Amino acid sequence: MTGTSVNRHCRGDMMASFVRQILTSLTYEPSASDMVPARDGEALSKLEQRLTSFVEQGTGTRATISIQPGDCMVWDGNPRDQPGLNPDSCRSLIDSIATEGGNRIPVLVRLAKPEAEAPYELLVGSRRRFAIDWLNHNGRSELRLNALVVDLSDEEAFRLADIENRERADITELDRARSYQSAVDRFYGGVQSRMAESLNLSNSQLSRLLGLAQLPAEVVAAFATKEELRVRHSEVLTPLLRRADTRACVIAEALVIGEEQQRLAREDERMLPAATVLQRLKEAATPSRPAELNGEAVIMAAGAAVGRVRTSRTGELQIDLTVAETADVEALLASLREAILTGRANQMQLVA
Questions:
Q1: Which of helix, strand or coil describes residue 236?
Q2: 351 and 267, same structural domain?
Q3: CB 285, CB 249: distance < 8 Å
Q4: Shared-domain flag, residues 17 and 121
Q5: pLDDT band at residue 105 using 50, 70 and 90 as cut-offs
Q6: Structure confidence at residue 120 (pLDDT)
Q7: Residues 220, 281: contact at Cβ < 8 Å?
């Protein structure tokens, strides 16, 4: 074995040992006192503390490589909303990297598959990659992205990204929940208990997060922003959505609220807060407020709300309908007929 091969082998063993320690020793739910201020005033996550120590102590100096931001594509198992990154949200990090001449805390990458568009996949460090890329396009083309190359399976990469992202305020609960929903089947064979054990979560904690990910699109759209939608909201709404008699009422009200939110946004007015949205959705499912009092009937197809029938001021039935290209036309027509009959019944009760 040549000297170069020996060095490469040693570096590989060193990185494997380093990552293994991170995955087995880091706790998942940090407290504010655990966060160490960085030079730019931001708090370092526990993972970033480890990476900083690894490099600054000289342990990982020879393992660090310098690459262009375009040399790595963000791994699709990372829950971070990439389009949500912008110069304003990353301003302090951009300023710090510009001052120091690079990212002091390395990103973590792994070798991409041969057919991939870039040689590396970015596992940890989306904000640092964005900051370097932004600086490259704004007067600092000489800067490169400092990275550590790690050899991880998809499941290990998911756990590592999860460790970092749980400590980030800009990762919404909905983003995290949706990443968990995808990961259950992708990395854990659909076995929820396996995933909970791997992530150091209780089954009930994981179930609550998955409940958030499973909220219908109409309900999600009823909230002003996805940042406002929390696990505690899904804990209230999920039982109502599991019952056929209340699910239709909740979705119908969510459609109404969603339209109202869009109108408020267009008119640049304050949108309805989460507490108001939640209260209205709960009231819609209350037995003391039957559907006929709203003068509306929901059109359901394949378990999803595709429209509604409501009574106009002139006594006519108005139909709002959204038809997807893949919709079952026969089933849709049957649902539409049932909704119209329900709407007529509601109309007669309102007159009476």
A1: helix
A2: no
A3: yes
A4: yes
A5: confident
A6: 95
A7: no
Alpha helices in the chain (DSSP H): 3-25, 46-56, 91-100, 126-136, 154-165, 173-188, 192-198, 203-213, 217-222, 231-242, 244-266, 274-284, 329-351
Determine, yes or no, domain membership for 208: no
Is the distance from CB of 298 to CB of 251 less than 8 angstroms? Answer: yes
d(CA 242, CA 245): 9
Residue 171 is predicted with a pLDDT of 78
- Residue 57: the pLDDT is 59
Sole residue written with tokens 């396009």:
137
Domain that holds residue 323: 292-352
Residues 148 and 35 in one domain: yes
pLDDT tens by residue, 193-234: 999 998 888 898 899 999 999 999 999 999 999 889 999 999
The string of DSSP codes covering 121-168 is: EEEE-HHHHHHHHHHHTTT-TT--EEEEE----HHHHHHHHHHHHTT-
Same-domain pairing of 339 and 298:
yes
CATH code of the domain containing 91: 3.90.1530.10
**DSSP codes joined into one string, 12-57:** HHHHHHHHHHHHHH--SS--GGGPEE-TTSPEEPHHHHHHHHHHHT
- Residues contacting residue 153 through CB under 8 Å, at least 6 positions apart: none
Answer yes or no: do 94 and 226 share one domain. Answer: no
Residue 90 CB neighbour total at 10 angstroms: 19
What are 132's two structure tokens? 């370097």
Instruction: Give the separation between CA 265 and CA 48, rounded to whole angstroms.
Output: 38
- Backbone φ, ψ for residue 77 (5° rounding): -90, -5
Token pair for 150: 């790690």
Q: Does 155 share its domain with 22?
A: yes
Same domain, 36 and 103: yes
13 and 111 together in one domain: yes
